[in-house]
Amino acid sequence: MSDETTTGIDNRKLLMWVFLGSDCMFFASLIGTYLIYKGTGNLDIGPVDVFDIPTTSVSTFVLLMSSMSMVFAYAYLVRNNINAFRIWMVSTIIMGATFLGFQVFEFSEFYFHYDLSPQTNLFGTTFYALTGTHGLHVTVGVVWLAIIFYSSLFRNSVSAETNLDLDLAALYWHFVDIVWIVIFAVVYLFGTFPGFPS
Amino acid sequence: MVSNKNNKTKKSGSHDHNHPEPITYFKVAMALVALTALEVVVFYFEWLGYAIIPVMAILSIGKFGIVVMYYMHLKFDEKLLTYVFMSGLILAVVVIMWLMALFGWFN
């Protein structure tokens, strides 16, 4: 598809970057709200009680690797190597789904084992709102990638010439990754760091 | 679609392919893994106290920057995309700082 543009940049790509910039502000409001409310109200249960850093480190590793897999899929599509593209796409989808599995496991542990729900306290409310929104973004990304993979398999509509379609999905996927980089540091590591004076 | 009256209009759709080779992407991934491992190791240095904040900030900003520059290709794409994204990102940081200041975090 080819449209006229005054910038020399495909309008869809420019729009995607505008969206990602605005999504930064969306997540900033959620992260800011988490930071200011996590230590207020009912403090019976907090980050130190529930977070499991080794488990979250593994899920972070999986998401980072999915970004590498995604960029490989894109690189091979641009080089018209469709089979390699499909392999890396499947790998990305599996790792994205695995990350979601970790999140479901974490949420269910918090809910059933620690009795932490969004109604328990402000930490629960803001934590579930932030990480749940991120999880929703990951879910959208996994579905988007699955649709592109399906199209390449059964509709032959994915090729080096249409690589911008994958590029847009890849941008979204990497964005989800960088948001998690921030959440992992700010919410999980800062939230449970044992060296802060109590 | 932009009007043809503007003689600055160009055809889009052709996409830059001056992106790195897969081996570069692999090296970037290894750098990300190393930085994440470093974050987790530093996490157990209790003696750092509040110094953990700048240390962790530098590590996270490093990871963030690497992904944006190499995986999202901002290093290789048109500068306008960098300006568009940075506008949102800077506003986002201001939003967080403003909220924290409003609620007395820096008192």
Give a written overview of the molecule.
The complex is a heterodimer of chains A (198) and B (107). With 198 residues, chain A is mainly alpha-helical. Chain A contains six helices and one strand, in the order βαααααα. Chain A has one domain (52-192): Four Helix Bundle (Hemerythrin (Met), subunit A). Chain A has helices at residues 11-37, 47-50, 53-78, 82-113, 122-155, 163-192, and one strand at residues 4-5. In chain A, helix 1 (11-37) runs antiparallel to helix 5, helix 1 runs parallel beside helix 6 and helix 5 runs antiparallel to helix 6 (163-192). Chain A is elongated. Chain A starts with a strand and ends in a 6-residue tail after the last helix. The model of chain A has no long low-confidence stretch (mean pLDDT 90). With 107 residues, chain B is mainly α. Chain B folds into two domains: 20-76; 78-107. Chain B contains three helices and one strand. The chains are: A mainly alpha (198), B mainly alpha (107). Strand 1 (4-5) of chain A pairs antiparallel with strand 1 of chain B, so a sheet runs across the interface.
Provide the succession of SSEs of chain B: EHHH
| Coarse structural class of chain A | mainly alpha
Please report the distance between the alpha carbons of the first and last residues of chain A. Answer: 59 Å
Rg of Cα set of chain A: 19 Å
> Average pLDDT value of chain B?
82
Distance between the termini of chain B: 52 Å
Rg of chain B over CA atoms, rounded to whole Å, is 20 Å
Oligomeric state: heterodimer
- Count of alpha/pi helices of chain B: 3
Low-confidence regions of chain A: none
The CATH class label of chain A is Mainly Alpha
β-sheet strand percentage of chain A: under 5%
What's the β-strand tally of chain A? Answer: 1
The domain tally of chain A reads 1
Uncertain parts of chain B: 1-14
Fraction of residues in helix of chain B: 55-70%
Would you tell me the overall average pLDDT of chain A? 90
CATH architecture of chain A: Up-down Bundle
Biggest sheet of chain A: strands, sense, closure?
none
Tally of DSSP β-strands of chain B = 1
